[in-house]
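User: Sequence in, structure out. Go.
Assistant: Echoing your sequence, followed by the structure tokens.
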Amino acid sequence: MQKYEELLRALLYKRGITDEMQADIFLNPDYERDMHDPFEMRDMERACVKLFEIIENKEKIIVYADYDCDGIPGAVVLEDLFKKIGYKNYEVYIPSRNGEGYGLNMEAIEQFVKNGVKLLITIDLGITAVEEVVRAKEDGIDIIITDHHLPPEVLPQAYAILNPKTDNYPEKMLCGAGVVFKLVQGFIKKYGEFYKVKKGWEKWLLDMAGLATLSDLVPLVGENRAISYFGMKVLRRSPRPGLQKLLAKLNIDQKYLTEDDIGFMVTPRLNAASRMDDPRKAYELLSTNDEVEAGTIADHLSKINDDRKTMVTSIMREVNKKFEKDSARGRSEVIVIGNPLWRVGVLGLVAGKISDEHKKPVFVWGKDENDIIKGSCRSDGSVSLVELMTETKESFLEFGGHEFAGGFSVHSDKIHFLEEALCLSYLKVKRAKIDDELTYDVKSDLGIVNMKTWREVEKLAPFGLRNPKPVFLFEGVKIENIKKFGKNGSGEHLEIIFSDKSKEQVKAVSFFSGLDSFKTFLLQDKKVNLLATLDLSRFRGKVELRLRVEDII
């Protein structure tokens, strides 16, 4: 490890990387070395052969993708393959979040049967669709499931299942688009020569696989590190007009695109399509080759994302009023709150905000277009939501999701008893909470905030789950000045100037924060302990290294 700078060694050590060989692999991703052979997935051979047969027979294919920023880029990955080999007899189907909800549904399958579909490929869904797969098979539709969610005890009787959680594939934590990328990689490996596709062409699809990997909060280690690392490289050069127009709209210079830009700016606008409108809008943005259409959709997604923010703010006001009115509400181990008028598509964001504030699992419900009570849930880490809902399954019509996030629907006569039922189940399946202790990577003075440090830190990028941005602790720094700033003078963000004993002064920013947002109230001249990450801003072409506040104590 001696060949690396002391700071970088310390940061690697914090990530469990303790020898030079591990460090070399982590710091220098290699496409050939770090990508597993797609045929290590159990049904990959079957899936590729079936797809080849269907294409050769010119039969109808449906690509059935989830409506979020994992399924939609996944659909674009598969569509790019079809475009490359000149195949036209396919359709991309994305269910409506509010009308159809998550997953395969019988009504859609009936429509596919009428339209003479022969192959259905799912993306980011399908692993629990046992009945729907039986129905499709009976009517002559073969199904290739590509998914990454936890499998049920009984798997669907699909023609092929590509899901690393069902077999011995080495990377268990691929996202949905990551799995479909492996299908394309396998197909090219097997039939690329037949279709005159050059070896390695699929690397251009890593912009979409990388976008989804960064958006879906999977651990950015192992194969996912390679997908996100090379994905960012392709995203910075991606020729997709929709991506270019959206980045221009957001004043982001494409060649300097960061994972923060993806997480805070791009993903919310793509997800706004399904939350507020039609998810196909996000798919059309990423797949179109038309510059004018791309510009129109980018404008539309930005507008409805603003509408989404307004809606979430309004619901949060209502939630806080309910908590004020009923002081017992929010004291129970699991919070259940809802209103038939709340829009189902934004309730995951609301649940996340309440969970962050109250440090509890939260279930938020509304009514969908079919008058069914549906909602989203988020966990604070004290319980796996899938375990909690399984323990309470009699209360739900349907449920599913991950450890930290999920969705559900409930009988209207059971909704008022849901909180009580979940609290009883919580006591059975809860686990020890991880202490919210002071966590940081490096303790230092403000002199460390310079471009040399930033270049060392950047060697660990892209950052995300299991590879977070390094946090610096600055003890006893003085608040020299506090300034509010924001869009149209809104003052929703803070700019703070800190100084230390050496009289070194550094600017820090904290977005969507007030003077009372931290563990200590902010006052000029007050001495505090600051936790922050390095942040290189390129706003309006001006390059500025600053800090981004994590907490002030």
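User: And one key feature?
Assistant: Residues 249 and 299 are 7 Å apart (CA to CA).
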